Amino acid sequence: MTNNLATPPQPPHTAIARRPLALGALGLLGALVLAGCGSPPRRSGDAAAGSAPPWQTRTSRTPPLATQPPLELDPRGREEAVALATLVINTPYTYGGNTPQGGFDCSGLVYYVFSHVAQGSALPRRLPRSTAEWAAATQPVDDAALQRGDLVFFNTTGALFSHMGIYVGQAQFVHAPSSGGTVRRDSLESSYFRPRYVGARRVFAPV
């Protein structure tokens, strides 16, 4: 996670000397976000008793539209997507991974699931790989219309789409959370994910 603690002022010559290091770190962070999940969450807390659903506490209610021609997979694949995601629960997290044998990162899990769902479909282009690419190629979904098989996104690093998972119903989603962890099911209403939730997006064609 990003450390937001303020740093003490540095003498001018020290600040200048450290600036290239800071720029290099920012570049590395950007590369990590594009390649996989950036710095995905390491744990989630329990939902507070009586806490509101995430769509009632989210501050942003106008998520951006797709910036590329949106993917519109056959909506009959929704249940297949949920089943595939559930089957790989407990697979180890591997940064850059997108197979059950090699492990998954968050966007690699999504890529694996929808690669299978899309088999036999005439897609105009390859499926997205990174979280940012998935967000760019999918349309936002109103939280009241969230369905099984939709994608859910989180801001875990300061970037709008830095983590993602597959919604499986009842405020639950499946995702690959962090190094040292495994693919698991978590709640959108957990104390960790609820404030970091930035919305859902649709992979499937509207019915």
Polypeptide structure, described:
By secondary structure, this protein is α+β, with helices and mostly antiparallel strands. It has a single domain (54-202), classed as Alpha-Beta Complex (endopeptidase fold (from Nostoc punctiforme)), CATH 3.90.1720.10. 25% of the residues lie in helices and 15% in strands. It is built from 4 helices and 8 strands; from the N terminus they run ααββααββββββ. It has helices at 12-35, 78-87, 106-117, 131-136; strands spanning 98-99, 103-104, 139-141, 151-154, 163-169, 172-175, 184-187, 197-202. A 6-stranded antiparallel sheet has the order 3-8-4-5-6-7. Strands 1-2 form a two-stranded antiparallel ribbon. Helix 2 crosses helix 3. The longest helix is centred in the first third of the chain and has 24 residues, at 12-35.
Please mark out the parts with pLDDT under 50 across 5 or more consecutive residues, or reply none. 1-36, 38-52
> What fraction of residues sit in β-strands?
15-25%
- Please provide the ordered H/E string of secondary-structure elements: HHEEHHEEEEEE
Q: What separation lies between the terminal Cα atoms? A: 39 Å
Helical run tally: 4
What's the total number of strands?
A: 8
Rg, Cα atoms, Å: 18 Å
What would you call the shape? globular
The helix-and-strand class reads alpha+beta
| Total number of domains | 1
Largest sheet: 6 strands, antiparallel
CATH level-4 homologous superfamily = endopeptidase domain like (from Nostoc punctiforme)
- What's the pLDDT, averaged over the residues? 79
Strand and helix layout:
Blueprint: H1 12-35, H2 78-87, E1 98-99, E2 103-104, H3 106-117, H4 131-136, E3 139-141, E4 151-154, E5 163-169, E6 172-175, E7 184-187, E8 197-202
Antiparallel strand pairs: 1-2, 3-8, 4-5, 4-8, 5-6, 6-7
Helix pairs in contact: 2-3
